Amino acid sequence: MSTAGGYYVVLAVCFGLAGGIVGRLKGSSFWLWFLISGAVPVVGLLAAVAYRFDNRELRRQCPGCGKVVKLHDALCTRCGTELEFPDVAIASEADSRRRRLSAG
Ligand SMILES: [Zn+2]
User: Fold this and answer.
1) Which of 95, 94, 69, 91 is nearest to 82 (CA)?
2) How far is the CA of 38 from the centre of ligand 1 (A)?
3) Ligand 1: distance of its center to the CA of 91 in Å?
4) Cβ(50)–Cβ(37) below 8 Å
5) Mind listing the pLDDT tens digit for each residue in 16-74?
6) Which class for 34: exposed (0-12), middle (13-18), buried (19 or more C-beta within 10 A)?
7) What's the Rg (C-alpha) of the chain?
8) Structure confidence at residue 10 as a pLDDT band (50, 70, 90)
9) From the CA of 87, how far away is ligand 1's center (Å)?
10) How far apart are the CA of 72 and the centre of ligand 1, in A?
11) Which residue of 12, 27, 76, 83 has the fewest CB atoms within a 10 Å radius of its CB?
12) Rounded to the nearest whole angstrom, what is the distance from the C-alpha of residue 69 to the centroid of ligand 1?
């Protein structure tokens, strides 16, 4: 029976399209995520949804060496300083200004 195989192809294309659209919305390549999500349907789509694209990521500066790292990083990738979750994220200037005002 080839029915199961046919369903799988349809499924793979659907997941591929979904993954591609998600990837593109996040500023990455449609075709890259189309291929990934088509090759490994469920996992690929989840990866596209969960993937953190660098250009959307909030950042902050390491207090130890001054390197700009991702907001969610627990360790500085340059000097290894343990990073607590910061009060101020670099990407959102307006927001940090508001927080500084309310803090005192
Ligand atoms: Zn550092």
Assistant:
1) 69
2) 39
3) 18
4) no
5) 999 999 999 888 899 999 999 999 988 998 988 887 665 566 788 888 899 988 877 88
6) buried
7) 20
8) very high
9) 17
10) 14
11) 27
12) 8
